Amino acid sequence: MAPSPFQTVDDLGLQGCLALSALLMAQEHRLPVAPTRRMTMKMMLRLCEHGLIQVPWPEALWLVVPDAEETPIEHLQWKLTWSVYERCWLREALADYLDQFPRDDHCIGLRLAQWTELVDGEAERFFGQQLAKHRFDIAWASDIAFVLKELRHLCLSASQWRYCGWAATRRGASIAQQSGHHNDTVREAIYSELRKRAVNVSSGAWNCALPPGNPLPESALGRCFTRHLAKLGPIYWNEGPNVDALGGWKEWR
To answer: Hey, how many other C-beta atoms are within 10 angstroms of the C-beta on 36?
Structure first.
């Protein structure tokens, strides 16, 4: 593997620093790296392409790599290969970069894009949990990505998307109970209900949201974002991604 061309955390940019910081935090505090396994793998692949870590993919794991690590929740093997910083100082250097990330219009836009991606991840994670609760195939959780993309203009909050996922799986459970099957018909009914709920919530016809009991994000990525880039508190869950909330944070520091 070729050495990484990056010589400082500044060279990594926002995405690189955030991803590496989340990976290290997850390892230290036994957290999911990102809201979904798919997001985690995407982040780790980006770090691998930058020469910061190694992963065994496409193999599932290394058989003999003594210094390999494994993400605590996803159980994905990886190995830190970026040796510019001592491991004990790397987290601090990454945190300093994120804390000092500029707050001009361009950088607020980058924060907005990251918040939007996190909302998508939180929605898919909760939807998957609800599918599992009702004993549906958790692979169906990826269906919400199509709804999120199609209805991006609605700008729903993570709490509102959680409500939509909760309501849609309950609808699917009702249909499955009546028919006695967990088949494609039930899957399509859940998908349609997701879209219907999202549109109605956005229009104000239904004032519904389902925030978590603890506003602290479960994933390391969410915690890094709200700790270093945007100290949103409950706003992280209760508002759709918006520039005003991120711009207002400049005055809270």
So the answer is: 23
